[in-house]
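One such given next:

>
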Amino acid sequence: MRMLLTSNGITTDAIRDALVGLLGKPVAESRVVVVIDAILGFPGDSSTLVDHLGALRALPWAEFDVASLFAGPPALVASRLRAADVVLGYGGSNLWAAHTWHASGLAPVLAEVLDQQVYVGWSAGSMVFARQLGQWPVAFDDQDELNLFGLTSVAPAVPLFDWFFAGHLGADWMPADAEERFARGAARSGQPVWFVDDDSALLIRDPSAAPVVIGDGHWRHFGADGALLASR
């Protein structure tokens, strides 16, 4: 398994170096497909998505594909996922993102990707692998998002981790009590939480082992009781 879970994409040299290490070759020789379903359900201005895609394209890649899981017959979308060296799950709603992998019938293909290719998560795209994802709306006060998308329940895209990922620590648009919220969510769910900033990422080769923190940014690791276990 070769996974890089980020808060805000490939934002630093350290995160890019980690990606190259997982690929085993330069980005310029690699193909990426960016899956954007997590953001598509939100109405309004899509300028941020366009800006992010432009910055990501500038790395540069040998081939840069942007896809929705519903962009055609599942077999056609699956072929695009399998053809890439990197599958990047973009941000938006973690609940809707997880749902789309199952609703499209492509969750088994994602499991293949995790076994054979590199997966990069970007915010919500990093959050869809928690085994207890169904607890997220209640534990983290996110019921409104569940209601927005007309979902009654949610399951992980692929169940891998006995912890939750949360991003954007310290971002100026995050609530002032964000750390307290995620500590409280950890205690409510009985699951640890990794809360990282936009200059940090978690590298995973074994889902049963502790992730390796990449970058010189800030992060918090809350235990299953909500206590702060480690931070930087």
